[in-house]
Prior knowledge:
By secondary structure, the chain is mainly alpha-helical. It has a domain at 3-155: Rhopdopsin 7-helix transmembrane proteins (Up-down Bundle). Helix content is 85%, strand content 0%.
Amino acid sequence: xxxxxxxxxxxxxxxxxxxxxxxxxxxxxxxxxxxxxxxxxxxxxxxxxxxxxxxxxxxxxxxxxxxxxxxxxxxxxxxxxxxxxxxxxxxxxxxxxxxxxxxxxxxxxxxxxxxxxxxxxxxxxxxxxxxxxxxxxxxxxxxxxxxxxxxxxxxxxxxxxxxxxxxxxxxxxxxxxxxxxxxxxxxxxxxxxxxxxxxxxxxxxxxxxxxxxxxxxxxx
Length: 220
């Protein structure tokens, strides 16, 4: 497709992918506040502040692809945006400086999210040990933060797998489409599929009906 048509698709995909770890960090902070500061929870976690956080997450997630576009517009000739290309991030934003910029951003980005999850998990653990009541809520919050850590590892596939794509395509050029397809499944589909399934299975009502459905299917 034309590069100009590919651009909004890639930018949307990158923005939604990069927003996921930040959302996990925000959810972990929410659990941390609810357990460690229960009396102030309703005053801290307000709708207005939530909307502000959503806006900040969107801004931080949209900044990298936006700068990629600016660099590409500055360095590529105008005819490039009318040429037909395979719609892939590395083929659309092909300047080498974009690669190094994104590497630095990813290091800072994931370090911040990882430290946030680690800090909230440790604080929740300490609070759970010190508390004599409401241990169930603290345990659930701890497990939730652990789940966020697992999801963060899944999100990291979006940054690890693509770096393996180019060498694999060079080794097996006849399977380039298949490699890109598997990469798409690993990066975009599987993490987004597992997250709602895991959260749904943790819900008691959903789990009850889910198990009932599979049991009924097994007996048919």
